[in-house]
Specification:
By secondary structure, the protein is α+β, with helices and mostly antiparallel strands. It has one domain. It contains 3 helices and 6 strands, in the order H-E-E-E-E-H-E-E-H. It has a two-stranded antiparallel sheet with strand order 1-5. It has a two-stranded antiparallel ribbon with strand order 2-3.
Length: 169
């Protein structure tokens, strides 16, 4: 009796093999009505220079208009001061009365310490650009800024709370 059941069991289980598979498959596809022409959207902090990498977002502009990019990407910013600061040779501010608010970073003071990239695309920042005039430029992700003093202590909260504090005391 068991041998008769086992001999018929492949037929009993055969329909179960078909369950995980669909008889009709569908896939998503996208088509445009015309060939795409023009250039891709990009980020620009100053309205002129195209941001080529995430590293380009990490620089700061000092009150004397000098720009200090992260790393040594001097081709992108030919007049930039290359950041070679360290504990023994920190970045020096040009004026004795300079404050944190005088330093321009991509994360605005009002948003410290984090901003969504999508917020930077539109007004009032308008960092999203497109040479063809396309609208609705979008970016996904967050930027977080961290300020440290010469001892490596995180002072980001202090910068947010006291942006007009003088730096060169």
């Amino acid at each position: 009796m068991i041998s008769r059941l086992l001999s018929k069991s492949p037929l009993v289980f055969a329909p179960l093999l078909l369950l995980p598979y669909s008889l009709s498959s569908q896939a998503l596809s996208a088509k445009t009505s015309q060939v795409i022409h023009g250039s891709a959207p990009y980020l620009s902090i100053d309205g002129v220079t195209k941001v080529a990498s995430m590293e380009d977002l990490l620089g700061i502009r000092l009150p004397n208009i000098s720009y200090i990019p992260q790393g040594a990407n001097s081709a992108l910013y030919p007049n930039a001061v290359i950041d070679q600061s360290n504990v023994d040779a920190p970045i020096e501010m040009p004026n004795i009365t300079d404050t944190f608010a005088d330093i321009q970073a991509i994360v605005p003071l009002v948003n410290y310490p984090r901003i969504q990239l999508s917020e930077l695309m539109d007004s009032p920042y308008n960092y999203g650009r497109d040479d063809d005039g396309d609208d609705n430029i979008n970016a996904i992700g967050n930027l977080t800024i961290k300020w440290q003093d010469k001892n490596g202590t995180d002072i980001t909260g202090e910068v947010k709370a006291n942006p007009n504090r003088r730096l060169n005391l």
